[in-house]
Amino acid sequence: MINQPTGAQLVISTLRALGVDILFGYPGGAIMPIYDALAGSGLTHILVRHEQGASFAADAYARATGKVGVCMATSGPGATNLITGIANAYMDSVPMVCITGQVGTHLLGTDGFQEVDILGLTLPIVKHSWLVRDPAEIPAILSRAFQIAQEGRPGPVLVDIPKDVAAAFVKDVPTTGEFPSWQPPQPDVADIKAAEKLIEQSKKPLFYIGGGVEMAFAVPQLRALMDRTGIPVVSTLKGLGAIPTTDDLFLGMLGMHGTRAANIAVQDADLLIVLGARFDDRATGKLSAFAPHAKVIHVDIDAAEINKLRMAQVGILGDLKMVLDGLHPKMQDISLWVAKCKSDKKKHAFRYDAPGTGIYAPALLKLLSEKAGDKFVACCDVGQHQMWVAQHCQFLQNRAHLTSGGSGAMGYGLPAGVGAKLALPDHHVVTVSGDGSFMMNIQEMATLRRYGIPLKIVLLDNSSLGLVRQWQRLFYEENYSEIDLSDNPDFVTVAQAFGLDAFRITSRDEVDGALDRLLAADKPTLLHILIDPRENVWPLVPPGASNAEMMEERWDEPLDSY
Amino acid sequence: MSHLIHIEIDDLDGTLLRVLGLIERRGFFIDAIEMYPIDDKTRGLSVTARAKESHRRFETLYAQIDRLYGLKRVAEPRKAAAAQKLSA
């Protein structure tokens, strides 16, 4: 049997054949045969310090590269620790393959040690999954898993491998199997013509773009169509970066924490051209009041998204690149509309002249992104800092704004930074986190030290769960419930204990020098920034309200409504 | 209003739960289920479902079922002879 490979060895050889260069994981009992085969295989394995970190790192690696991210964990708690990351990838359509060890097949269903039905637990949050029962099927299943993860609307795929299946010798080494290459649906020419007609009739057209543009590698096609038509654009959280945020026609993010210019344009538009976006409630606010005057052209690779929440006058199913290349409308004069959009953008531009000498996080983040330039990549956690990054940072490239959008998973930022920095070693990859989020995966600083990953960390510390605090102030009569984090550890000392360089700033005049020091660092470095806990994210559309109802509080004006 | 959905399911772990879970999770009551063998590797499934709320559209549900792997939605049930006899 010595020349016969085991199932585990087939896992490793198949991953290599599929072009995998890096994977993130954590070993344990049921996956030991696979880790045994991994040693000396040439595959780069990043040992994280918690399985959730592996799934987030793989997710970010996939977002940054467009390739499939791979993570591994053992059965039971190892597998369940992956779940938040799998859900995150599912909600944001990220191609990922998760390999889990499982108890031996003879123990399945017996409540064996570290047995959990991970296939059953993850059914609603994967594109597909397998429980492998025959080791000879491993090459074919893994190959198909990679294909499914990437084809159409991307997403996570789970492959659960019982220990005895991984350990078994395979007599006849199978091939990876032949699968017909997936072809995207061809957009219907009649639909393209109908869309062109609507665009030609429109006096106030607007692009509403989502993460699908980036996922479809359709950024050049979108930029070319904008050049052909001169139509302004608003973006979802995940769409940021597809159009440079410095572009005149870019009005900002729409929705709950969107810019006034973007939300006003959506409410005024007579045509929304929706590209790779899904009318998420954070983007639309009260759906029945969203874009009340607009007809809709909805382009998506996923048929289930078209007409799901908003009926489209023209729905186009197909690859975005093909659809955008096919659109050549003869535009009427929309200069008055464009001028109105640009005027609103100027009129409602963010202000950075906050009073006092304390550090104003929006200004700091804006400056950070400008200093980092086109090599800037932000890995956000979830909370106020995440929204400030979306509102104030400059993004000149796509795949540069890695954020937990649909899932809103606190703890994403640090392990995402691990995955993104390994994917993009020549970029200024910066994890922007808050003191609440950072504590959720703080152990991954050990991963930075182990591999010498020179990630830069901007930790905005308001000693509270700021976004929850903001909602409690506005919508729960200032009944502040369980948001105080003033007993945080000394983050600089903690980071130094993990072997990172770390320093703290507390006043505005330190910002410029601190950012220069951070960006020049060639080691993993944490910049701890104390900010005012009373600072909030504005504008804010109250939950359930129309996007026309934007609340805002300025230093020189009371809380008001638009 | 109830709809009758016919699906052919491959013999893979989790496929039945995957499709039934999807129907419930996406906002539909399942009123009746019938399963029947078609061949060694395929089972037929007929589900009678109705929307929990009026804005839940069957067209969207069908598209969500269609994007699952390991099953195929069909217009008419393709029952094996023995199963037809049983259900009769």
Automatic annotation (TrEMBL), chain A:
<dbReference type="Pfam" id="PF02775">
    <property type="entry name" value="TPP_enzyme_C"/>
</dbReference>
<dbReference type="InterPro" id="IPR045229">
    <property type="entry name" value="TPP_enz"/>
</dbReference>
<keyword id="KW-0786">Thiamine pyrophosphate</keyword>
<comment type="pathway">
    <text>Amino-acid biosynthesis; L-isoleucine biosynthesis; L-isoleucine from 2-oxobutanoate: step 1/4.</text>
</comment>
<dbReference type="GO" id="GO:0005948">
    <property type="term" value="C:acetolactate synthase complex"/>
</dbReference>
<comment type="pathway">
    <text>Amino-acid biosynthesis; L-valine biosynthesis; L-valine from pyruvate: step 1/4.</text>
</comment>
<dbReference type="GO" id="GO:0030976">
    <property type="term" value="F:thiamine pyrophosphate binding"/>
</dbReference>
<dbReference type="GO" id="GO:0009097">
    <property type="term" value="P:isoleucine biosynthetic process"/>
</dbReference>
<dbReference type="InterPro" id="IPR012000">
    <property type="entry name" value="Thiamin_PyroP_enz_cen_dom"/>
</dbReference>
<dbReference type="InterPro" id="IPR011766">
    <property type="entry name" value="TPP_enzyme_TPP-bd"/>
</dbReference>
<comment type="similarity">
    <text>Belongs to the TPP enzyme family.</text>
</comment>
<dbReference type="GO" id="GO:0000287">
    <property type="term" value="F:magnesium ion binding"/>
</dbReference>
<dbReference type="InterPro" id="IPR029035">
    <property type="entry name" value="DHS-like_NAD/FAD-binding_dom"/>
</dbReference>
<protein>
    <recommendedName>
        <fullName>Acetolactate synthase</fullName>
        <ecNumber>2.2.1.6</ecNumber>
    </recommendedName>
</protein>
<keyword id="KW-0460">Magnesium</keyword>
<dbReference type="InterPro" id="IPR000399">
    <property type="entry name" value="TPP-bd_CS"/>
</dbReference>
<dbReference type="GO" id="GO:0003984">
    <property type="term" value="F:acetolactate synthase activity"/>
</dbReference>
<feature type="domain" description="Thiamine pyrophosphate enzyme TPP-binding">
    <location>
        <begin position="381"/>
        <end position="529"/>
    </location>
</feature>
<keyword id="KW-0028">Amino-acid biosynthesis</keyword>
<dbReference type="Pfam" id="PF02776">
    <property type="entry name" value="TPP_enzyme_N"/>
</dbReference>
<dbReference type="GO" id="GO:0050660">
    <property type="term" value="F:flavin adenine dinucleotide binding"/>
</dbReference>
<keyword id="KW-0479">Metal-binding</keyword>
TrEMBL record, chain B:
<protein>
    <recommendedName>
        <fullName>Acetolactate synthase, small subunit</fullName>
    </recommendedName>
</protein>
<dbReference type="InterPro" id="IPR045865">
    <property type="entry name" value="ACT-like_dom_sf"/>
</dbReference>
<dbReference type="Pfam" id="PF13710">
    <property type="entry name" value="ACT_5"/>
</dbReference>
